[in-house]
Specification:
The complex is a heterodimer of chains A (about 775) and B (about 325). Chain A is an alpha+beta fold and about 775 residues long. Chain A has 21 helices and 38 strands. Chain B has a seven-stranded mixed sheet, with helices on both faces. A three-stranded antiparallel sheet of chain B has the order 2-4-3. At the A-B interface, helix 8, helix 11, helix 13, helix 14 and strand 26 of A face helix 5, strand 1, strand 2, strand 3 and strand 6 of B.
Chain lengths: ~775, ~325
């Protein structure tokens, strides 16, 4: 919402101060100033000139040569990069010596060998509109050589571009912004009633309105105008519209926009001759009903859209969103029906959104326009049109729908102070509210007051709404700042601490945390060997963001491939992130996964990582069971167990998958369901004091069939070694022809010790023998000599 | 038979001649071993007269002691020389490193996230979490966005194909966690909720369809807007450091009233628009089963990603998601 300072001052002449200060005040009122700019300034030296001739530049394609007459009858050559002017057009010329609003100085200079004696200006360059491309073509009839400011009646002004929140319907008008600003500045705010005199046949005899959708349309006002102007609007009005970003079209359209910007009430004109009997009706559209809107597009409507209909119940307008083509005014139009109505915000929002027709009008109706401004908006239009020769029929047709009786809002002063952290008296609060039209009546004990909410603040309906206004007008920056004290000790949950610990563990091991996008493209999971697609996003902007992941694997594979393609191999990455592997209740199942990818390493690297992780978390009975896993190398993959329950998988990425990702290294992989892992039985084994007695170390090597895992053998040894076995660890594996096909040698280091004595040779020998016996018996293994 | 004095002289000569510990070991054997003159002399004592034997024996013992001392001294000398030689031989250029063990790096988002958590934990907050795929109710309904309310359009919501159409979505903010916490916990409540959020947005330098927010919620007996402003200010000082201040500007969010935007002012006077905040709306309290006449509260939220960008001087949001080691490895 753009507002001009001069326009604000028409409602509050005493608004004064530095523009920067006013901008701060507006921001503090919740009308954030996104941009503060000065218009109509720095235009000295820019004059009206006529295009006499245009010629190609002999040595450049993107510029041409334009001869202009700047009032002295001489042809002045200018080089120009825009080609939108014709001979006879009037254009703004920045003469040599001019300093442009942007700071650029215009000098006589050669451009590719041709002299340029000044610069022709675009609208944007001189603060008139947003057009950067073409040169601004001025209206005919201006005197050549006259300063542009004089010729166009431009006055220096200040433009505030405001960000207006959805709860501020009032601030969608110059009047509303002026009211707020005047209240804060403590200066007078006044609205002058437009002066209108009707002539001839009363409006009620020339037009009629019936409302068949009274909840949708609370009020529908109509005035009838004759002799409407067909030419352009007056220059002062066009200038203002240009400044606030609205291109002037013609007098009728410009008047309509002007009134909307000024008072916040959108309005619409119908060619009276095209509306049989001047009769208008309002109803909800029929399903599938067709309407061609002003832009020439045929629209198919739903029962949620409101329409304006004619006497024959034919839709002639899309209420509050866009007029219909059939009653559009033209150059021949002499008499019009001028409509200003109130429409249900939600309905307008829905229609505008569905049809992609958000406009200045719908933006106002969506927030909730002011039903009481309708007569004044009509009158203001009439008043401005009268200055251009239009006349109006006496009276206004004022049809009403269901308008809920506004109920006053009771505000408890202590409650307001308690919410805001202020110590304002009831009088101080009402003094803040009255200037913005919130009429207050203090209750019996002075500790509460009743507020009549003004018709332009549809958003305000409850006590908290009024408390917000008190706070806003008092100024958030004037509220004393305090910090609440809690008796609660701040802390992370054990799970949150574990997450941090895991991150520290892996980064300490040289593994870097990655953050792949959580979205996948269709087929990404299949490419990673993970089967069907997961949950789909119904309205993604791109296909790459249409599938939710069931595993962290596609993302991390992509990260490894991305780095490999940039000649960074051997990458080690981990991620902790949510996945949606399927199933669920009211919401899809959401699991937190932990995955580690180690490029350039074999599967056993993943086993080592898993053991480090399990040890770090003190997982009870962590295990690995060899066996195929989707997307992993079938002979180099397995399940991860925590206390006997599967919590994930590890191994090496399937070579076929690696081919698909164009990764040339072996890639070790570990992925666990972190939630399941952290919930698994965990805890350190009971403390045992270190033995004071020497231990005995022995090595045992077995020939074991391939089907038997090294872990199984170790488990057998551990069980057979019993109490005396302090540790067992695999230290060597080899295969050879002598050992035979399908068998390998596994060598374990065993340490025996007792807490209460030095073990004698016989004890160690006996323990050793029971380990040997157990392994050979259980695993079709033989002791190697 | 050699005189003991001569044996000592000979020992001095031979010990001095030995230049290695091995040579000295041979010398020791020659001088004191079974076939040494010393042992031979000792054996010869048995044939002597008692008086002479006693005298000669004492002389031999003295000589033996001297010889042992000479050998020990020489041995210490040689051992020290050998150690010095070995250390010299083992000299190493400590920059000759051919193994390059990589350091792991925490992602900048995690680093920023954890720092923010730490600041609030230090202020007495707990850390709450919620699902990333949310119900329409928690994302909007419980937060005072009625169905069809235009304010829902402020969020370009991504929906997922689950349940009835339009009921399940990718949360557009971390605010649903507010509602979940209030449903499950009796006040007083002091929590922050960092998390991942989603919007229908085209990826560019300043937008991503995925981003991270942190949400704060306080519910207590007499919590005020002044408490909110003070908390934002305390956070600003704790996170950004001395010289940074904050301000609140009135704004609009359906789930808070009064609502505000909060900005951070840098020591150089420039402003950073950081996030939104406000007093918990009575309708939100009611939706979550808390009596708004008994409890008051505030909530705030802001983006983590932009803070990470600012903190590390990164100029393009997309870099956060490429997983290029040349990016990740810098932090």
């Amino acid at each position: 919402m753009k507002v001009l300072l001069s326009w604000l001052r028409e409602f509050a002449p005493d608004i004064d101060g530095e523009p920067e200060h006013l901008a701060e005040v507006l921001s503090d009122l919740g009308l954030a100033v996104e941009e503060l700019s000065y218009v109509g300034q720095g235009l000295d030296g820019i004059v009206v000139a006529e295009v006499l001739a245009t010629r190609p530049h002999p040595d450049a394609d993107r510029i041409h040569l334009v001869d202009v007459d700047a009032g002295d009858g001489e042809a002045l050559q200018v080089c120009c990069g825009a080609f939108n002017m014709a001979v006879g057009d009037l254009v703004p010329l920045a003469t040599v010596g001019t300093t442009m609003p942007g700071g650029m100085e215009i000098a006589r200079r050669k451009m590719r060998g041709e002299w340029s004696n000044g610069m022709l200006c675009s609208g944007a360059e001189i603060g008139m509109g947003d057009d950067h491309e073409g040169i601004l073509i001025l209206d005919q009839g201006l005197s050549l050589g006259v300063p542009l400011t004089e010729a166009l009646g431009i006055h220096p002004d200040v433009l505030f571009d405001l960000e207006v929140n959805p709860n501020r319907p009032d601030a969608m008008s110059v009047m509303g912004v002026a009211r707020d600003l005047a209240a804060r500045l403590g200066v007078a705010f006044a609205v002058t009633a437009p002066g209108v005199e009707g002539v001839g046949q009363p409006a009620a005899e020339r037009a009629a309105v019936s409302i068949a959708a009274p909840d949708f349309c609370r009020r529908f006002g109509v005035r009838v105008l004759d002799n409407v102007p067909s030419g352009p609007s007056p220059r002062w009005m066009a200038n203002r519209l240009l400044a606030v970003g609205q291109r002037p079209i013609n007098a009728v359209v410009d008047l309509s926009n002007y009134v909307m910007f000024e008072l916040g009430q959108p309005n619409h004109t119908y060619d009276l001759d095209l509306v049989p009997g001047g009769e208008l009706g309002v109803r909800m559209a029929h399903r599938g009903e067709q309407l061609t809107t002003l832009d020439g597009t045929a629209r198919t409507l739903t029962t949620y859209d409101g329409v304006i209909v004619n006497r024959d119940d034919e839709a002639i307008g899309l209420a509050g969103v866009m007029g219909g083509a059939s009653t559009e005014i033209s150059a021949d139009t002499r008499s019009v029906l001028l409509e200003a109505a109130w429409w249900d915000p939600m309905t307008i929002a829905r229609t505008a959104r569905r049809l992609g027709l958000r406009s200045e009008a719908s933006a106002r109706f969506e927030r909730g326009a002011d039903p009481d401004i309708i007569p004044m908006a009509l009158d203001r239009f009439v008043e401005l049109a009268a200055a251009l020769g239009a006349t109006t029929s006496p009276g206004m047709i004022d049809a009403t729908g269901n308008r809920p009786e506004p109920s006053p809002v009771r505000v408890r002063t202590p409650r307001a102070n308690s919410i805001l952290g202020t110590e304002l008296s009831t009088d101080e609060m009402t003094a803040l509210l009255e200037p913005i039209g919130f009429a207050c009546e203090t209750g019996g004990d002075g500790q509460e007051f009743e507020v009549s909410i003004p018709s332009w603040r549809l958003d305000s309906a409850t006590e908290i709404d009024v408390i917000e206004e008190v706070g806003r007008l008092h100024g958030f920056s004037n509220i004393k700042r305090t910090v609440p004290v809690t008796e609660q000790a701040g802390a992370l949950t054990p799970q949150q601490q574990d997450r941090r610990g895991i991150r520290a563990l892996f980064t300490g091991m040289g593994i870097t945390e990655a953050m792949p996008l959580p979205f996948l493209a269709p087929g990404d999971l299949a490419r990673a060997g993970l089967g069907d697609d997961g949950i789909t996003v119904t309205n993604p902007l791109v296909a790459e963001e249409s599938i939710m992941r069931t595993s962290l694997r596609p993302g991390l594979l992509k990260a490894v491939a991305y780095n490999a393609a940039r000649r960074t191999t051997g990458v080690s990455l981990f991620e902790i992130g949510r996945t949606n592997p399927g199933g669920g209740g009211e919401l899809p199942a959401e699991h937190e996964h932990l995955a580690v990818i180690v490029a350039g390493q074999e599967a056993t690297a993943a086993t080592a990582l898993w053991r480090r992780l399990a040890r770090h978390l003190a997982v009870s009975n962590p295990g690995v069971v060899n066996g195929p896993v989707d997307g992993l190398h079938p002979g180099r993959s397995g399940q991860v167990l925590a206390d006997g329950q599967p919590v994930g998988a590890l191994g090496e990425i399937d070579p076929q998958v690696l081919d698909a990702y164009e990764i040339d290294e072996r890639v070790a992989w570990l992925e666990v369901d972190l939630g399941a892992l952290l919930e698994a039985d965990r805890g350190l084994a009971p403390y045992r004091a270190p033995s004071r007695y020497p231990s005995s170390d022995i090595d045992l090597a077995f020939t074991v069939p391939d089907e038997v895992s090294a872990d199984e053998v170790a488990a057998t040894i551990a069980q057979a070694g019993g109490e005396l076995l302090a540790s067992v660890s695999l230290f060597d594996v080899f295969r050879s022809e002598q050992l035979g096909e399908g068998r390998r040698s596994l060598a374990y280091a065993l340490r025996f010790e007792a807490a209460d004595r030095t073990l004698n040779d016989a004890e160690v020998a006996a323990a050793r023998q029971s380990c040997i016996d157990a392994v050979t018996a259980a695993h079709n293994a033989t002791l190697r000599g | 038979m050699a005189e003991p004095e001569q044996l000592v002289v000979e020992a001095e000569r031979q010990a001095a001649a030995a230049t290695t510990l091995d040579e000295l070991s041979a010398v020791r054997t020659a001088l004191t071993g079974k076939r040494s003159p010393l042992v031979a002399a000792r054996k010869a004592l048995g044939n002597m007269e008692p008086d002479a034997r006693k005298q000669a024996g004492q002389a031999l013992n003295a000589a033996k002691a001297s010889i042992d001392e000479i050998l020990s001294a020489r041995e210490a000398e040689l051992a020290a020389a050998a150690r010095t030689a070995q250390l010299a031989a083992e000299r190493l250029d400590l920059t000759e490193v051919t193994e390059h063990p990589a350091s792991g790096h925490l992602h900048v988002i995690t680093q920023t996230w954890q720092e923010l958590e730490d600041v609030f934990v230090g202020m007495g907050y707990r850390v709450a979490e919620g699902p990333e795929i949310e119900s329409e109710w928690y994302n909007f309904g419980a937060l005072n966005f009625p169905l069809g309310h235009p304010a829902r359009d402020m969020y370009d919501t991504l929906y997922v194909d689950y349940g009835e159409p339009g009921t399940t979505l990718l949360r557009t903010h971390t605010s649903p966690v507010q509602a979940r916490v209030m449903e499950n916990q009796e006040p007083p409540i002091y929590v922050v909720a960092p998390g991942r959020c989603f919007r229908q947005d085209t990826a560019d330098a300043t937008h991503m369809p995925v981003f991270h927010q942190i949400e704060g919620l306080v519910v207590d007996r007499d919590t005020t807007l002044g408490d909110l402003a003070g908390t934002i200010e305390a956070f600003t000082a704790a996170y950004f450091g001395p010289g940074f201040t904050s301000r609140l500007r009135p704004s609009y969010f359906p789930f808070t009233e009064p609502s505000a935007e909060f900005d951070i002012q840098r020591p150089d006077g420039t402003w950073l628009e950081l996030g939104g905040c406000g007093m918990v709306h009575p309708n939100v309290f009611k939706a979550c089963g808390i009596d708004p006449e008994q409890w008051q509260g505030f909530a705030f939220g802001f983006g983590i990603d932009r803070l990470a960008l600012i903190r590390f001087g990164i100029d393009d949001l997309r870099e956060l998601w490429t997983n290029d080691m040349r990016f990740l490895g810098q932090f």
